Amino acid sequence: MTRSLYPHFPVLLVDDEVPWLRSLSMALHGSGINNIIQCQDSRQVLDVIGQKGVGLVLLDLTMPHISGEELLSAISESYPSVFVIVITGQNQVEDAVRCMKAGAFDYYVKAGDTNRVITGILHAVRIIELQRESQDVRTRLLTDRLERPEAFADIVTTSKKMFSIFQYMEAISVGKQPVLITGESGVGKELIAKALHKACCYDMPMVSVNIAGLDDNMFADTLFGHKRGAFTGADDFRRGLVEQADETILFLDEIGDLSPASQVKLLRLLQDGEYYPVGSDQLKRTKARFVLATNHDLLKKQQTGEFRKDLFYRLQTHHIHVPPLRERKEDIPLLLEHFVKEAAREFGMKHPPGIPKQVLALLSRYTFPGNVRELRSMVFDEVCRNKTMLSVDEIKYLIELRQEMEFSSDTTVLGEDLILQAFLGAQRLPTYAEVENILTEAALDRAGGNQTLAARMLGISQPGLSKRIHSGKNCARKQ
User: Fold this and answer.
1) Does 1.10.8.60 match the CATH number of domain 326-409?
2) Which of 178, 265, 318, 360 could form a disulfide with 290, with the two C-beta atoms 3.0–4.6 Å apart?
């Protein structure tokens, strides 16, 4: 399968005037639409639609043999899912009203603004893509299978949540709409982007850029390129990444850090597929597909005014949220074994070190704030130290150290007024023993079952915490 044709369904041009067919085809090619079929004989239209799987018909009204209005009615009856846009030389309101009532998606006059016509056609293509993708998602979820499992081979998982994401990715792989990937740092957003690229079957490699820290000028120059002499030091023409990714995916990482001015440029690029190289007045169009990622909460940033509302909603067309590792702990054994083998290969070992059961138990209780990336770095460090068997004590020490660092960095404490309000709102005050049990359970939960760290959170000794835990269990048994 090749990705050279866009859209993935043919667009049928129906007109008895050859010059107009040629002119419209050239305009469509310039906008990125090149999956085009031309038809001069209106008698052949229904057969072409049925044989070629046409998704959109651009139809003239005045033609010999069968008129455009007759064809419109026949298409609406026989192929209700096919969109029809009427493009005719007749500038009559009555004609337009009749066509819209007969099922036309839109109506344009040939003598009108060509850019307006092309924009309307692109709009129709996007709607058809979304409808087909939505249907494909439902079909794939019902069949519970993957068409191209090899595209996801680099993502080590046994999670049902991740499998559902893969099905969704396959369903949206045929379109050109932008894809937003969100998730905490370290969950593997770039791996998801690479898997989507494989599922799309592009011939060209994916183009990637981390745009965090780029000011507005650097952002424009990196993405759009510049013409010679555009600014001091621009001694030669430079192709931007958008142009380099014209037949593939352009992956933009960390878009949550974009400046307001860069957000405006990105919005136009995503919305119209148009841009200007720096220092140039020549408008360019791109056929690249944009995949964007962030670990920021864009909804919150949009509500505070840090992220443009129109850009936020433009990015919601296709949204993939990658769950953190703590929400798919069934993946930890698989990932642990995978990273141990990977580390052993990197360090030139003949055999990977063994994995004690206690290590897996320790890791399964840990919350992994750094997600898969943190697990990988932890495993690589441990394999480097122990080439025969992973050390339970060292893994335990690493986890305690990371938990302590995380706890010390979290300085958010409930104010006295909030605590007082919580008690005043209750129907009865809890007893000292009940409060003690609640705090003990909360601290143990935050510490992942580590009593030493939980005791430090509560400001008591570890033996004191053990005594409270033991006494709480006895009370529960008596009740």
Assistant:
1) yes
2) 178
Range 150-323 has CATH code 3.40.50.300: yes
Q: Which residues of 287-321 are buried (b: 16+ CB within 10 A; e: fewer)?
A: bbbbbbbbbeebeebbeeebbbeebbebbebbebe
AA letter at 126: R
Q: What are phi and psi of 284, to 5 degrees?
A: -120, 150
- Say if CB 334 and CB 363 are below 8 A apart: no
pLDDT digits (tens, 9 = 90+) for 360-377: 999 998 999 999 999 999
Ranges assigned E (strand) in 116-192? 179-182
The structure's pTM equals 0.74
Q: What is the CATH number of domain 416-478?
A: 1.10.10.60
Tell me: cis bond preceding 7? Omega within 30 of 0 counts: yes
Q: Report strand pairing: 284-285 vs 274-275.
A: antiparallel
Instruction: Please choose, from the candidates 197, 289, 291, 195, the residue with its C-alpha nearest in 3D space to the C-alpha of residue 246.
Output: 289
428-456 pLDDT, tens per residue?
Answer: 777 877 778 888 887 887 776 777 777 77
**Domain chopping of the chain, boundaries:** 11-133, 150-323, 326-409, 416-478
